[in-house]
């Protein structure tokens, strides 16, 4: 065990080739935090005894209580390796691992996204019994799209041995399945820059172990052990320890077949030499009284020495003690991380294209690619971490190039900065302090060289959630992160005393800063103060944070969670809709059409990266894939809402005079219309509006914006009303794992909640089935509790927003469910329960 | 017929017209009452029996309906305005104005019993009674009776416009006498007033049948008003106290419709928690707490949302929405300084009545409007302005960092000289601020420029000599709402 020494960490921070920045990612409850404990203890921060119990990386009280990680936490760990076989590019035998432990629950996925952005490698943890889940896939996909290299840890092997009493061969099969399922995902990301990232035990980028018991191993370790024993080259043995390599004891030969010529079953190399002895050890320790001699012999063989005290321990504890001594978890993990994950120097060379928004040949891009400590400072702030001092934040992120110092003058490029408007959201300020994040503690730094993750003090006022910090005058910002979770569940809050409204808003702003997936909105039309989050649990945590922390001392009243709807149309407008301007001198003739799902998705996908209309690609897709008329594609006037949403305004007129003048006014009207639809002021989705004809007054004073905007909005509303308007409700993709024998209860419950079962897949090697279903979010409130009570707590569910679905019923027809929802939404927003009739918007000639 | 006369106070109006020797009378009615306009005119003509007097009915006002439209009346050279319906009583017009409130029927007995159940007879703190214009006709009688049981109840008066110069002259003598009285009985002033009212009420009752009745009433009010000279005047009300800070120590009571705009102005300004509301039009009379009423909370939440938005706005339009800009110069100056101090840009726009269409002309350049003028209807206005529209106090709350919100919005916001001087001082100091601040300022200026650059339409193109010479063509003909050659597309 190396001793924790800050000086050594600080020293190592200047050697990028000996740094590894990694995130631990996995499905919830697969043992990330527990596993991290072992690594923290190895670095000398907590005692070995406590590892596996303490959950050091869960720094919040509620995290410890619930045993669930909510916020990702960073820590820097210092290790020394043997001098003999160091990685090629390393500089000395000491290494610094900057590690981020991330939450596994889907509701907190945005934390994972933020963690991966600043990491070069990912330790993927999978429970060997339950296997890879949907969240495992999600986080792995995120990692790969960020060009973060994965290594795999197959966790909870003890469960397979003790709980399920699996035979070595069965355990092997289980491992193979897990590895295959991970490789399926990896192989879909062929990336020439990342190189070969397919994982396999013989490559030693897979580890097996049990975080709770504090042990893990890679095949490399066993191969080394046997190499010494048998005096054979390690590589040769390594190959035999995995795959279809069987030991034929009669012929003293390795063969490729399961049975020898006589038909005797042969033992697989992995089973005989790796997992078999471990199973054997488990058995012996469990009945240690009976097998004292055999146990002693085995312990001798593996070189584990026990003190007399330890010998007296209960078998359960004794097992942990032995395993921790035999195969300490941290050793295998550290080996895997240091040898198989890239250093910043290596990783930044290929990551820069995915990160930097500017030209790849400019000074900043070059500095990032080379991880140049003398280049301009380029730091990406991926999240804001609340400080102990109320209301202030550390800006946490990674320095990609240059050296940042306390007191240095830097330029901050916020989320809304773009090179087009170089004055917007750009600030110059001084960095008060640079600090190293060590779990729940911080260590002050004087300076920080590129390749490290640090926190900055004193820049939080200028950043909303993320941003770029640079010293280069003409630096472009880092690309924005794309989050997989969308905030679709919302609650409205208000203070009990109206005087506290300003404090509430302040609190909401802080909450928004601290959590990248929370949206705090103020609807000035209805006077609602809204917190939108990924799910019920997420909102519960947010509300708790608000009450206990950001708005301490204020009584807050919160509404029940509600979902946001969308509005859409399902067919072409039944008539050309006409609206006149207030002065009667101008007319607009429009029709609404539904947009194809594919186009909606394309718009949303492209928009995550950049503004759509500058990409000819999209326009080409429209003509080639959806056979749109080229003439019209060129005349797309606007996307909306917020200039980027999945709705289109197209001019299909010919030869109208002065038409250009009203383009911006029509676009403004379109933004307003798509932001608040006619049914219940919810955003519009998937609507194409075609302008059929326009009549304008010859005198420009009579066709100003004040005349055109209201006219445009009215005509759009009318066209929505005539095109079979429908509500859209958000749908969760819900994955439930449940023992087969009570899966019927789950089906019943899903039925009640309007859920649609997509698939039921049995988990091999267990009695569990995985039921995937679509579940309307509006029905999902309280689903968790219902599921628990229906299955006596044996079912486990994860829900993540998947898509919008059209509610078939007519919302304008009394008595339908859609009508009820529409009215509820309208009343909540302080509107009349029923929208205006068509005549209100549609003018007659 | 008699009922109609009573409802629209025909006799009172005739009286007023004759007294002012007016020949061009303007009748201003809100849209709701517009249907009665010709009937009113007929009745007035009949009663006046004077062909020389001509009537003008204002069908579309250039102000809000609660304000007196002097602009439109000046166009037809009107010399007297009769304003019907709810009024914000904020007029400063020079010509004679008569406010006719359409009375609602109230049951005095029920109101008194509602008072008794709410307050019992035990002495609580001082109470001040506000009432809507609709109950003006019956308030005196009601108050007389209430005051017997509740001596701690004081009333407010309507601050009606003083028009009849003659009247004022007559009262000058009486006033002197009264002033003497006042000096003698300074401490018992309030009681005195009430006694007087009692006496006057009795007189009033006795003379009920007399034609002079209305005139008397006016006189009484004038007299009282003179007496209340030192007292606070706000939202068309004369308050029975002199110090505004004392107001919140009283229990404030509103008698009238619970949706009356004046009630919201009062409650926003003085704090909703101080108000109890009694709506005489409801079936079951019961006091309600203003702060508990849903619309009130919603309004406050909405207004504060706008204040929050104002903090982020860059270009602010100061809209002068009154017809008497002289008085508002001070407030314009204050707002300009305030905006400049916050490193934002301002623009002053003068328009009579603030309408969505008019403001629409500026939406491209301005993020927010602050309106100086009749605030009463603005706060409750539901129409879409495309940009937040604030009252001066709200902007002050947003941009003045020294202020802390106490849950009220002062609709009677008026900056004094100290406030302006203070801002000027601050502005001077900020010139010496560090470089960064200046850069930010520059950024904003640049932003304004860049905004106008993004416009797709940059004015008419002058294409001199580029267009071919052609013959004159016949243009559109017919009404704008439907030209003759227009065919229905459907």
Oligomer: heterodimer
Largest interface: A-B, 51 and 51 residues
Helix content of chain A: 25-40%
Helices of chain B, by number, come to: 17
CATH topology of the largest domain in chain A: Rossmann fold
Average pLDDT of chain B, to the nearest integer?
Answer: 73
- Our estimate of the beta-strand percent of chain B is 5-15%
Give the radius of gyration of chain B. 27 Å
The CATH level-2 architecture of the domain at 296-418 in chain B is identified as 3-Layer(aba) Sandwich
Radius of gyration of chain A: 30 Å
How many separate domains of chain A?
A: 6
Q: How many β strands of chain A by DSSP?
A: 35
By CATH, the superfamily of the largest domain in chain A comes out as P-loop containing nucleotide triphosphate hydrolases
Overview of the molecule:
Chain B: GO terms for molecular function: 2-(3-amino-3-carboxypropyl)histidine synthase activity; iron-sulfur cluster binding; metal ion binding. The complex is a heterodimer of chains A (845) and B (490). Chain A is built from 28 helices and 35 strands. Chain A is of the alpha+beta class. Chain A folds into six domains: 1-214 and 328-348, P-loop containing nucleotide triphosphate hydrolases (Rossmann fold, 3-Layer(aba) Sandwich), CATH 3.40.50; 219-327, Yeast translation eEF2 (G' domain) (Alpha-Beta Complex), CATH 3.90.1430.10; 356-470, Elongation Factor Tu (Ef-tu), domain 3 (Beta Barrel), CATH 2.40.30; 489-564, Elongation Factor G (Translational Gtpase), domain 3 (Alpha-Beta Plaits, 2-Layer Sandwich), CATH 3.30.70; 568-724 and 835-841, Ribosomal Protein S5, domain 2 (2-Layer Sandwich), CATH 3.30.230; 727-809, 2-Layer Sandwich (Alpha-Beta Plaits), CATH 3.30.70.240. In chain A, strand 16 (433-438) and strand 17 form a beta hairpin. The mean pLDDT of chain A is 83. Among the domains of chain B are: 2-100, Diphthamide synthesis DPH1/DPH2 domain 1 (Rossmann fold); 108-160 and 236-293, Rossmann fold; 296-418, Diphthamide synthesis DPH1/DPH2 domain 3 (Rossmann fold), CATH 3.40.50. Helices cover 43% and strands 14% of the residues of chain B. In chain B, strand 10 (251-255), helix 10 and strand 11 (275-278) form a beta-alpha-beta unit. In chain B, 32% of the residues are buried. Chains A and B meet through strand 15, helix 17, helix 22 and helix 23 of A and helix 11, helix 13 and helix 17 of B.
